[in-house]
Amino acid sequence: MDEAELDKLQADYKKAVDDWVTAIRAEEELASVHHSVAELDKWEEAHAIEHKASREVIYRKRLYEDGLRRDLFGF
């Protein structure tokens, strides 16, 4: 694996983390608003988005780690 491929995997992972942080903050903001059914629905949706972002971070981290293993250890 060449340096450019590792750079891309790292950048993809970092972007996924940034997106996850944004999703966490959006969910947190909704957890602090007026208590209503409409807000509850928005909060649940924000949680679903956060959960999806979290899974994307795990996936991107694994790809990056696998790339590093191939580069450093040849497997």
Give the gist of this structure:
87% of the residues lie in helices and 0% in strands. It has 75 residues and is mainly α. Helix 1 runs antiparallel to helix 2.
Description:
- This protein is an all-alpha fold.
- The protein has one domain.
- The chain has two helices and no strands.
- The longest helix is centred in the C-terminal third of the chain and has 37 residues.
- The model has no long low-confidence stretch (mean pLDDT 94).
* Structural domain count: 1
Order of helices and strands: HH
Radius of gyration: 17 Å
Uncertain residue segments: none
Mean pLDDT comes to 94
Beta-strand content estimate: under 5%
**By helix and strand content, what is the structural category?**
mainly alpha
Largest pleated sheet: none
Instruction: Name the overall outline.
Output: rod-shaped
Q: Please, how many helices?
A: 2
Cα end-to-end separation = 11 Å
Number of extended strands: 0
Helix content: over 70%
Pick out its properties:
single chain, 87% helix, 75 residues, mainly alpha, 2 helices
Topology of this protein?
Elements: H1 3-30, H2 37-73
